[in-house]
From TrEMBL:
Keywords: Aminopeptidase, Hydrolase, Metal-binding, Protease, Signal, Zinc. GO terms for biological process: proteolysis. Belongs to the peptidase M28 family. M28E subfamily. GO terms for molecular function: aminopeptidase activity; metal ion binding; metalloexopeptidase activity. Residues 1-19 form the signal peptide. Its EC number is 3.4.-.-. Its cofactor is Zn(2+). InterPro entries: M28_fam, Peptidase_M28. It comes from Chytriomyces confervae. This is Peptide hydrolase. Residues 178-356 form the Peptidase M28 domain.
């Protein structure tokens, strides 16, 4: 029965082939600038392996797969964007990395930590969020309006501190799942270091005129220390609106490393993350930071905002400043101060964040 149905399908496909265009050449590149144009021209996005990226094929080429007994999956209309098989955008990323500025990050975090505290229910917690929002607006204003559309918004909560979201729209005609980079508002290392890491990433991309093919978003969450309150509300809203997300990358604590050289590593979280996305971020860490070592380490239940994305079924990734058992002993105290931040270590995470943003949105 299966064979007879397959034979009928093969005959049907064969009857359509004469009316289909051939695989596009360079002259036809504009026609295939987006998924809609490819589909309209009769092409389908076909995957034949978990280790190779899918390719666009017309019906004669799909028919050839039947003839050669090659199994495949048509992923053209698949809602979930796949993580790239391997990093492939170094030509775009490498020229951006020298723009990462330790003085710029130091200045930013110095001001951010001058607020008496960033507690989500306190007046200064709101003031620090107001300052962050204003900084994001000022940065967005520097974008080349002929190339980039950058919007800054407040995500209100039941408490006075709000979350801040910056969105970099896709190139004209582009769409697709969003790529998220996130951190939370709090003290110098936990997590002012992550906050400044993604802010510097945004600055480098805007001033480098990087135009994503799919939207990029940068999130600074309120009230992480109170039980992931801010990120849970943001993620719930995205889930309710059926927003497609191809990856959410959280940076929480990037500014401490051990004085013992044997323990100077970047921690690769093994829990509450998507294994494929996390492995991809690990590859970026090693590619764009020469001689840096990594260590697999468990984060624990609800340890940071990536857990909100993971619980909601979105792919999430998370890097940490070291192995969790070796983490900064000064956090959650008045001694979590900027003078203890290791800026060369923060720079490593900024390099990964820039690479992630480009790879996932291009």
């Amino acid at each position: 029965m299966i064979a007879s149905h397959l034979a009928l399908l093969v005959l049907a496909l064969a009857s359509w082939t004469s009316a289909l265009p051939a695989q596009p050449d360079v002259a036809d590149a504009a026609l295939f600038a987006n998924t809609g144009a490819r589909k309209a021209a009769g092409y389908r996005l076909i995957s034949i392996s978990d280790t190779e990226p899918p390719t666009w094929k017309n019906l004669p080429e799909i028919l050839a797969l039947y003839h050669t007994h090659t199994r495949f999956i048509d992923v053209t209309d698949q809602d979930l964007e796949t993580v790239p098989v391997k990093p492939s955008r170094s030509a775009v990323i490498t020229p951006l990395l020298p723009s990462i500025s330790i003085p710029s990050m130091t200045k930013w975090l110095t001001t951010f930590t001058t607020f008496k505290n960033r507690y989500y229910k306190s007046p200064t917690g709101k003031q620090s969020a107001d300052w962050l929002y204003a900084q994001a607006q000022s940065l967005a204003a520097l974008a080349d309006k002929t190339k980039l559309k950058v919007t800054v918004s407040k995500f209100a909560h039941e408490f006075v501190q709000f979350s801040v979201i910056v969105r970099v729209e896709a190139a004209a005609g582009g769409s697709g799942p969003i790529t998220v980079l996130s951190a939370h508002q709090d003290s110098a290392d936990d997590d002012g270091s992550g906050s400044v890491t993604i802010f510097e990433t945004l600055r480098v991309l805007i001033q480098g005129n990087y135009v994503p093919k799919t939207p990029l978003e940068f999130h600074w969450y309120a009230a992480e220390e109170a039980g992931l309150l801010g990120s849970q509300k943001v993620v719930a809203d995205y889930k309710r609106r059926s927003v497609a997300v191809n990856g959410a990358f959280q940076l929480d604590m990037t500014g401490y490393t051990s004085s013992d050289p044997s323990k100077q590593v970047i921690g690769i979280a093994t829990d509450n993350v998507d294994a494929t996305l996390q492995n991809f971020v690990k590859q970026l860490t090693l590619i764009h930071n020469n001689s840096t070592r990594t260590i697999n380490t468990a984060c624990g239940y609800g340890c940071s905002d990536h857990a909100s994305w993971n619980r909601a079924g979105y792919p999430a990734a998370f890097l940490f400043e070291t192995a969790f058992e070796e983490s900064n002993p000064r956090i959650h105290s008045a001694n979590d101060k900027i003078e203890y931040v290791n800026w060369k270590h923060v720079e490593k995470f900024a390099r990964v964040a820039v690479a992630y943003a480009v790879e996932m949105s291009s």
